[in-house]
Amino acid sequence: MAYKTDIEIAQEAEKLPIVKIAEQIGVKEDDLELYGKYKAKVTEEYMQSVQGNPDGKLILVTAINPTPAGEGKTTISIGLADALSLLGKKAMLALREPSLGPCFGVKGGAAGGGYAQLVPMEDLNLHFTGDFHAITTANNLLAAMIDNHIHFGNALGIDPTRVVWKRCMDMNDRALRDIAIGMGGKINGPVREDHFVITAASEIMAILCLAEDMEDLKRRFGNIVVAYDYAGQPVRAEQLGAVGAMASLMVQAIRPNLMQTIGHTPAFVHGGPFANIAHGCNSIRATKTALKMADYVVTEAGFGADLGAEKFLDIKCRMAGLNPSAVVIVASIQALKYNGGVPKAELKQENIEALKKGIVNLGKHIENIRKYGVPAVVALNSFVTDTEEESRIVEEYCREHDCEFAKATVWADGGAGGTALAEKVLQTIETKASEYHPIYALDKSLREKIETVAKEIYGAGDVTYTAAAEKQLRQLEELGFGQLPVCMAKTQYSLSDDPAKLGRPDGFTLTVREVYISAGAGFVVVQTGQIVAMPGLPRHPAAMDIDVVDGERITGLF
Fold it and tell me: Which residue among 247, 383, 420, 555 is the active-site one?
């Protein structure tokens, strides 16, 4: 049987004008800034007008550790929101924008899948409303102003060997990780080592997603530590006079984007930090505004619960004052078998032994969510290759671990395939009170916070630090940054910092390689293992399969 691709399904789907979608949630056309027929931004005036409304219920969708191909978290998020709408609930989505890096790299598009997608998916996966471009430009404006300042006399005494601000671009390009700039003579500026990160890992992206409004955005921009002077003191963006110009590039980008699902459920899509190298959540502005507009808001945190959910609960909720009512943990039989040691090429074959071996990964994530005091539901993202016996094993495992369970077939059936999950989530919210609390207190030392996450969430037995990381921790606390939360950068494929350690590794040693401040975002980044902030393309990039036919129709985008 031949199945339609995601992009074929999306292109054939009936789309309503975005003004009609907005009407469903009480947004008038005058409250929209249209970007064509099917996408728009909401105005600042509208966002302020709903602030007096009561908050809806917030549902976080997270997952087990994924396979290299993902595990269907966005698909489940979209299908769950559509299912809530089908059940007569006023529901919205609050999701992240895809980065071009994964779109052209390993994963292809990231707008959901099958009949649980955001549309138009080509717009979302490619340039969308230009938010990523604005972030990239603001980031690189600041980089240019740093080198310009050094070139024209360096009045701030910036040590060129301690410029920590990196350039960025929204593309996987390993050749730009470590570069030399200023070559070719004095006229080209100071010669120094420089680096690129992918736009999703830029501190500008994190700030966009954590800022409450434009004034908060500018305050955070001003706090960015771009370098250290010869005396070892931080130099901030505000000292370079960069804040106003950077903010001018973000006037449109700071406003949430409104789209629709194939099932015509309204969706805010805003911001897109990665969860393995950043905090991995959509913007606070989009989430909090959606909560004023709908009774139920479904949001998503990137990669597994050890990354995205941990940062959602320890960073985003803490900063924004959010209180999630329930957490959905997405699992797929293929991902569980991958965690049991099955190669990617063999995941569609029944393998009971590997499933039982890998299902302990799910158990660890269930335990972790409970540590935050939020009730959880496991959603089994079903594939046609799953067998009845495999599904039964997962359901029994959840029952043995006293966790609610529901199968979802939203890829094939859209919202109708998620009604069992939606009913289970609604029942959980009605019967189990959320007692959300972060896993660590901010008055703990940075080392204590790191080790709490490593041992409580990852299952590490010990944490070791490189000599450089030890020195960086000491300096950051001396500079007054010790009261901030930590943003852990770690591989998504394992609970440990080693992508080869699948399932539920226990008692391992986590290695902290580097620690640095994102003062504008308001957290300390902790890099573990061999994680990099500028990914590379695979041997066969998804870009090789993308094309334009008939003059304008895009093909191959997943």
Answer: 383
